[in-house]
Write a structure and sequence with these properties.
The complex is a heterodimer of chains A (269) and B (274). Chain A is an alpha/beta fold and 269 residues long. Chain A is built from twelve helices and ten strands. In chain A, the strands form two sheets. A six-stranded mixed beta sheet of chain A has the order 6-7-8-3-9-10, with helices on both faces. In chain A, helix 4 packs across helix 5, helix 4 packs parallel to helix 6 and helix 5 packs across helix 6. Chain B is α/β, with parallel strands linked by helices and 274 residues long. In chain B, 40% of the residues lie in helices and 22% in strands. Chain B is built from eleven helices and ten strands. Chain B starts with a strand and ends with a helix. Classes of the chains: A alpha/beta (269), B alpha/beta (274). Chains A and B meet through helix 6, helix 7, helix 11 and helix 12 of A and helix 5, helix 6, helix 10 and helix 11 of B.
């Protein structure tokens, strides 16, 4: 399963400026691609475009080509896109169905709508709860959880769908470090199962731990792209307004002080 | 400048009966910079909502500037404690950036030059100068968050409470917020921030309060709270010290919660061996 973008540009309805332009991107099977960039670089827009919500639901105008496994998706209706590409939003409140009474039902809601057999729905729901270690929330009302807990529930709902392609827009924005790590583990597990994942994140420590490639967006265009280690250590990253991962920052601070950063290496692993 | 104090504060949410705060005793002095950390659901947001009267204690009391918060009107509390929500969309409602920022100080009775100065200062501190006429919903979510911060800043309250201020901010936004915290404290005003970003907590705050299941389990300067002896406590609420602290400990440099601390400790050691 490959998701390919060629020369993709997109304008929101009523605007004259392209929010993203000339974006080439390829998401292969089992691959996690990190999407980083300063605020308003177009990361969320690109997530909407890759998921098919823009322009299908959001409106606006798109150009270029998006293909799933070589097939142009231009004419596909939203429900067909949604079967193949899952999307997780930054704000979990926009993600929750608002129609379920418990966390368990909320997570089961997606797979039930896929028309899966009952046993399969239950198995997937239990597995998603366990993966994110939120079993104890199963009977709670999703709308009465903390922001971070809601975010974990929303991600569990996506996991239960087992999408072939998954787009995550800052999935850990409201999560504590442990929650962030659980989401990282869940992403890695999904990718190991063959899913391809586009992960937009400000937390470059998370990107460093799960992504094999990184795409840097700036002003709607791809500014840098390449293997994770290379891109996240690129000095241009900071100029573009992206915080480098902690380890890169430490090495840099030590070097800037005129000391040998080699002293850190043993302690960084 | 005022003191904040909670005494035996308990909060039980009526729906679900969740005991979000389970006896919190906390005293925050005027001009302190305090970061509150802890896992999701540990009671951080519930605690700060008591500081400006959004929630009332189930048991115990909250004192704001010596007065019990439950005895003050919402308006009186709003003059003392400004709260910036995690989600700006719970807060932003005006048609332009300028009107949004003006709303608070206007309600406090400011006008004319005083109002203009408050608005200008808040926009400058948040990097929104030049966006006065912009519709808040044309700003990206990161800048809308800075706008929510500006609108509370403009009220010049002696206490500022920030819920997850750096979430979703890029490197520049985070640097701006760090400068802003330092600037507010330099004026003798108090800053209390909830954060999941341990590096930000260690660099921008002089005191770290760690919460777990509605209680305070550690409270002290970054050097102590992120030092080796506290790691077990941090782990009990699923937190980890910043990388600089871990690396400093592995290198036998003692407690180095920030990059600067680590660099200085390395310098001292290389100076001593030279």
């Amino acid at each position: 399963m490959t998701l390919t973008l060629r020369g993709v540009g997109y304008r929101y309805p009523g605007t004259s400026r392209a929010a993203i332009d000339e974006v080439d991107l390829e998401l292969r099977d089992g691959e996690v691609v990190g999407l980083v960039g300063p605020s308003e670089a177009g990361k969320s827009t690109l997530c909407l475009v890759v998921s098919g919500l823009a322009p299908r639901t959001v409106g606006g105008r798109i150009r270029g080509t998006i293909a799933l496994d070589g097939e142009d998706v231009d004419a596909w209706p939203m429900h067909r896109m949604a079967e193949r590409v899952g999307i997780g939003f930054q704000n979990p409140a926009t993600q929750l169905s608002q129609v379920t009474g418990t966390v368990f039902e909320e997570i089961a809601f997606g797979p039930m709508n896929l028309g899966l057999p009952r046993d399969e729905v239950l198995a997937r729901t239990h597995e998603a709860l366990a993966t994110l270690r939120i079993e104890e929330l199963a009977e709670r009302d999703p709308l009465r959880l903390s922001g971070g807990q809601q975010q974990l529930v929303a991600i569990a709902g996506l996991l239960a769908m087992r999408p072939a392609h998954l787009v995550l827009d800052e999935p850990t924005a409201q999560l504590d470090p442990a929650g962030t790590r659980l989401v990282g583990d869940a992403i890695a597990a999904l990718a190991a199962g063959g899913a391809s994942i586009l992960l937009a994140e400000q937390k470059t420590d998370l990107v460093a731990s799960v992504a094999s490639r990184v795409v840097v967006l700036a002003e709607g265009r791809v500014a840098l792209e390449g293997p994770t280690d290379e891109i996240l250590a690129d000095p241009r990253l900071e100029e573009l307004g992206v915080p480098p991962p902690s380890a890169v920052r430490l090495r840099r601070a030590v070097t800037a002080a005129g000391l040998d950063a080699a002293v850190l290496e043993g302690a960084l692993r | 400048m005022i003191e904040l104090r909670t005494e035996g504060l308990v909060h039980v949410y009526r729906e679900g009966g969740v005991r979000a705060l389970d006896g919190v005793d906390l005293r925050i002095g005027p001009g302190e910079r305090v970061a509150i950390v802890g896992q999701n659901g540990s009671g951080k947001s519930t605690l700060v909502r008591h500081l400006n009267g959004l929630l009332r204690p189930t048991e115990g009391r909250v004192l704001v500037g010596g007065d019990e918060a439950s005895g003050l009107t919402v308006a009186a509390l709003a003059r003392r404690v400004g709260l910036v929500f995690q989600d700006p969309d719970r807060q932003v409602f005006s048609g332009s950036v300028k009107r949004e920022v003006e709303f608070g100080p206007r309600n406090l009775g400011r006008s004319g030059r005083e109002l203009d100065a408050a608005v200008r200062g808040a926009l400058e501190a948040t990097g929104l100068t030049g966006d006065e006429a912009t519709n808040p919903y044309d700003l990206g979510v990161a800048r809308r968050k800075l706008l929510a911060l500006a609108s509370v800043l403009a009220m010049s309250t002696p206490v500022l409470v920030l819920d997850e201020p750096t979430t979703g901010q890029d490197a520049r936004g985070t640097d701006r917020i760090r400068d802003l915290v330092a600037g507010i404290a330099a004026e003798g005003r108090t800053v209390v921030a909830i954060t999941h970003d341990m590096r930000f907590a260690a660099e921008a705050f002089e005191r770290i309060v760690v919460m777990r299941r509605g209680r305070i389990v550690a409270d002290g300067p970054p050097r102590d709270v992120f030092g080796r002896t506290s790691w077990e406590t941090l782990a009990s609420t699923y937190l980890e010290p910043p990388l600089a602290a871990v690396v400093g400990d592995r290198l036998g440099l003692g407690s180095t919660p920030t990059e600067d601390d680590l660099v200085n400790a390395l310098r001292r050691r290389s100076g001593a061996s030279a």
